[in-house]
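Bench notes, afternoon.
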Amino acid sequence: MIKSTRSTAARSSFEPDLSSIRIIRSSRRTLSLQVRPDGQVIVRAPHHVTLQEISSFVRKNSSWLQKHLEKAEKEKELNAASPVQPLTMEDIQKLADEALRVIPGRVAHYASLVGVTYGRITVRNQKTRWGSCSSKGNLNFNCLLMLAPPEILDYVVVHELCHRKQMNHSPKFWAEVAAVIPDYKTREKWLKTEGTRIMRRMTG
């Protein structure tokens, strides 16, 4: 989702179909633009913003909109060509429960190898991220990791723990990862291929 408080993209030759955009008004203060997985474009706007202002906002962000519409279309084509079985909420809860049993132990094991401490561990059900590390050292992990091989889970754990030393993806960061998991590139590649199929099973 893109918000009006961020810098807008340059205009492009792409001309958005303003008539098909759904506008949702509320007491919010800023404009935001969203592309749903089915390709539906939504603009969330304050009550006082005019249609002309909304139109201008959409056109200013036409490059961003085109990119995400194309992404949504590719995902629809992928789903049609290679359908997956969506996870039910019960499935997701079971994965989350399993993750809470498994992941803390892996984090404790690898934290000593990386040489870092960490804060709270949270398990979430996400569609785009496998894990994250906050500046305070709190760690978040996707419950879908329970559907991946153990070595992939370990890679994600090490990846996030290494952010305790380097909050970036610089050469120094990857050197920290490689010191613990020399074949991390192979595991990263798995996430970008097989992991994408797992992510597509997330419902909602």
